[in-house]
Each structure stands twice: as structure tokens, then as C-alpha cells.
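explain this.
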Amino acid sequence: MNTQEPVSGTKDAKLHILCAGVSLMLVRMLKDQWDALHPELPAAVKPAGSVDLIRLCIAGEPCDVLISADDAILRDMMMPQYAEGYHIWAGNKIVVVGEGIGTENWEEKLLAPDATFKHHNPFGDPGGYRAVMAMLLADEYKPGLSERLLYHPGHIGMEKNPPPGSQREAQYEFTYYSGAKASGKSFAELPAVMDLSDTKLADVYARVCFAVDDENTVTATPIAHALTIPKTAVHQEAAKEFAGMFLALDKEAAGFLPRASVVGRDPLR
């Protein structure tokens, strides 16, 4: 495929990839391969929380491929004005990472009076609002547990606009299974009714939601990571090639759960 598309007024054309942190390891690996194949159009990778990435794309940030941690926000924030469809490329689940924590003792560890636990910013990152959703769903597992987790004095991460690098360290962290597996650290798997992994529990998950801003409230769904090519992509054909290479990667080997489908118009066609 010829990716040498003319770009008026620029001598250093790049393929701009905006990617969620959960996909960064895969994207970095693919960038090296892409750059070797296409030195005329190297990939410029920008990682961030998916809500923030979508806001950047809508505001005019160069974006040829957008890889989101959550398909729902692509649908709700970008379609149909900024994108016509997307590929779901993997599933995942929420777990808790930390020294000595496991599936048998996570309640005890997190509810200890001196425990501290954190997550990403829920107002900009699906990993953050999914952690909050997991806590909200804790009542489905054990009534009263949601409030004890959400309002625990050691719960860190609910500040809306924290200064960069200001978040305190914590003993435990709510994160994705794929990231936990890659880290090599101890982690606890949560009950399926909390971990947002089971498509059969979609109706249960949908009982909770989170407002990321005044205009967008996200309803909990089984985790689906997704990829789109915005209408504003400058390098449309190259974006399709990069996206196809990404979709062909072995995501299960990287700790992701198998899940794949197309919603709306296939951006690769």
C-alpha cells in the first residue's frame, strides 16, 4: 500500500496515533515496525486518557488513528460528527494490584483502616471511571460495600483537575488485568459482577454510571477497547494500514480478553 500521501506545507509528515495507556505497549511495539516499513511517514504516538484524547481530537489535534480504552465514548462523543464507526479490538477486566493482595483477601486489604488505594483520573480516563464503577457495583456483590470503598479515607484519585504528578502513592491500585499481568506484581481478581468483563452481565453493569463532564455521562458496560479513524485524519490510507496491523496483533498474548466486532461503518474500508 502506498502511504505517501501529500501533505501541503509540511516537510516532516507523521502518522499521528492517539492511544489510550492500556494500548501503549502494543502501539510502541508496532511503531518500531511501522517506522522501519515507512520511514517517509513515521508514527508520532501520543498516549493519554481516552476521554482527554477524544477531546483533543475534537478540538483539532492531529489524529490519524485513535485507540480508545472504551468503545462507548467513541460512540457517544465522536459519532456521527467526527467518526462513522470503529473496531472493538479486545476486552479486559478491572483488578486490584498491590503487594500481598489476592482474590481471597482483597476486601480485607482495601477496607483496613490504614489502607490506601488509587486509580486514574475518572474525569479523563476510562480506567479511572471504570474503577469507580467497580466500586459502585460492589453492592451487587455485598450490600453496603460500595459506600465503604468509595468513602474510605484512603481512597485516592477523585480530584477533578489534579496538578500533574500530584497524586499520592498508594498501597493498592485499581487497574486493568492486561496491565497487571504485564507488571508481574501481585493482584486480586474481583467478582465478575464488579470487574466489568462479562458480556452476560451487561444489564447489571448498566445500573451504574459516571459523569465525566457536564455533557457526557458514561453508563457501565462490559469493557471493550476500540479503534477508529477520525474523519479529519490527514493520512487516511496510511491510517487504515496501521490500524490493520494493530488489529492483527496477538492481544491475548498481552493479557487482553478476546473480543472483536465492528460498530457502524468499518473505518478500514
Observations:
- The chain has two domains: 15-91+224-264, 94-219.
- Residues 82 and 232 are 7 Å apart (CA to CA).
- The two ends are 14 Å apart (CA to CA).
